[in-house]
Amino acid sequence: MLFAITLHEVAHGLAARHFGDRTAEMLGRLSLNPLRHIDPVGTIFVPALLLVLGGPLFGWAKPVPISVRAMRNPRRSMIWVALAGPAANVAMALAWCAVLAGVARLDGSLTLVGWLALMAQAGIVINVVLALFNLFPIPPLDGGRVLVGLLPPRASAAVEKLEPIGLLIVLGLTAIGVFGWILSPAYRLIGHLIGALIGSST
User: Does residue 92 register a pLDDT over 90?
Assistant: First the structure.
């Protein structure tokens, strides 16, 4: 989880810097130190609450500061900046797939191999779910920012007005099981993928 949320936020900052905004860099947020990205509510309280309630586990880190006005072609640039976070999670999921495939072929200590395999499986699940969750078209999620960048100005402004209550909408949809229902095919696909990676070594 720490790898997933840290690299997710750093990817946003790196993409923003690429398009001309160095705000995150100047404030020291292009760091791989997880402590710089922890949000007390999104990284600790919400995941712990969902864990207790038995809901789908998700959370968020402290967003990297971005100055849209500093970017070249702000509307189009923000689409790529928003997509950079989920793209980083997909890349990490693929890396964990490679780790799991390699670990499944090891003949070392069963304890160590089992621990590495469980860590790789967790890395795959967390990163895939985090990427998909963030792509839901609800601001302030990344998918919402992509939608704002793609819509005509008037419709874009209407969607942006949802941002102050966006997290409440997300929590409400989670409480009634909407996200669990939508993400269930992804969970099944991940299960098949992990099974194939482990079985490929036998």
Answer: yes
Which residue ranges make up each domain of the chain?
A: 2-199
Catalytic site residue from 9, 25, 160, 163: 9
CA distances from 189 to 125, 132, 184 (A): 10, 13, 9
Residue appearing with tokens 């005509």: 152
User: Any idea how long the chain is?
Assistant: 202
pLDDT in tens, 26-44: 999 999 888 888 888 778 8
Report the distance separating Cα 16 and Cα 20, nearest Å.
Answer: 6
User: Is residue 84 a contact partner of residue 14, using CB atoms and an 8 Å limit?
Assistant: yes
Name which of 120, 162, 121, 133 is nearest 42 in CA terms.
Answer: 133
Our CA dihedral for 102, 112, 50, 166, rounded to 10 degrees, sits at: -40
Tell me what the mean pLDDT of segment 20-25 comes to. 94
CA 125/CA 121 separation, integer angstroms: 6
How is residue 39 annotated by DSSP? -
pLDDT of residue 202: 42
Alpha helices in 104-162 (DSSP H): 110-134, 142-150, 153-160
Give the pair of three-digit tokens for residue 96. Answer: 């964990």
Read off the tokens for 195: 């099974």
pLDDT for the residue 26: 92
9 is catalytic: yes
